[in-house]
Specification:
By secondary structure, this protein is an all-beta fold. It contains no helices and seven strands. The protein is flat and about 40 Å long.
Amino acid sequence: MMFEWKHGLIWITFELEYEEKAVKIDNCILDTGSATTTVDIELVDFNYRKPAMIKRLFGIGGGTQEVIAQKVDKILAVRRRSPLLIRIIRSKPGG
């Protein structure tokens, strides 16, 4: 798995299996303090008939967001050639 350090955050690529279909998710922020994983339903062939729950997520700045929660079949780390590589990308000043 490759970790990228950009803009003070850890970014990863992973795959999830939802409704028996594999979906690759690029440029995802790895939030080590989060209790859940959130994926935009536009990135998967979302099944509105599958049982779901509405949950409220809370942000560090106090913001909230209601989301539809469903279980996925699997979450997989995308394998790279090296077992573990951390790449640091330095931001330009002001960017």
